[in-house]
C-alpha cells in the first residue's frame, strides 16, 4: 500500500466509448437484457395462470389482452427472450466445459445463438398457430 500513487497519475479505467463493440460483448449484454426480460414475462405467465384460476370471465379478459396485436408482440418478444437466453446459457455451458474459447469458435457460437434464437422463435410460433 505504501507504493500507491497518490498524485493521481494512475491510468483511468476505459469507458464504453473507448471499447470497440464486438459480437461477443453485444451477446453478453443481450444475455443480461433477456434475463431481465424473463422476469417481466414470468409476471405475464403468472397473471395468465391466476386468471385461469379466477374464472372464465377474467380468463377471457386476459386472453383478449394477450390475443391483441400488442399482446402478441409482447408474447413474441418474451418467446424470443426465452429462447435466446436458453441458447446463451448453452453457449456458456460449452465454455464451462472448456471448449469454444478460440476466436472463430466464439464468433460462431455468438452467430449461432442469434440465428438460432430467431429461427426457433419463428418455428415455435408457426407450430403454435398450426396447433390452435
UniProtKB/TrEMBL annotation:
Pfam families: Sdh_cyt. The chain crosses the membrane at residues 37-59, 65-87, 108-131. SUPFAM superfamilies: Fumarate reductase respiratory complex transmembrane subunits. GO terms for cellular component: membrane. GO terms for biological process: tricarboxylic acid cycle. Keywords: Heme, Iron, Membrane, Metal-binding, Transmembrane, Transmembrane helix. It is a multi-pass membrane protein. PROSITE patterns: SDH_CYT_1, SDH_CYT_2. GO terms for molecular function: electron transfer activity; metal ion binding. Its main location: membrane. It is found in: Membrane. Membrane-anchoring subunit of succinate dehydrogenase (SDH). This is Succinate dehydrogenase cytochrome b556 subunit.
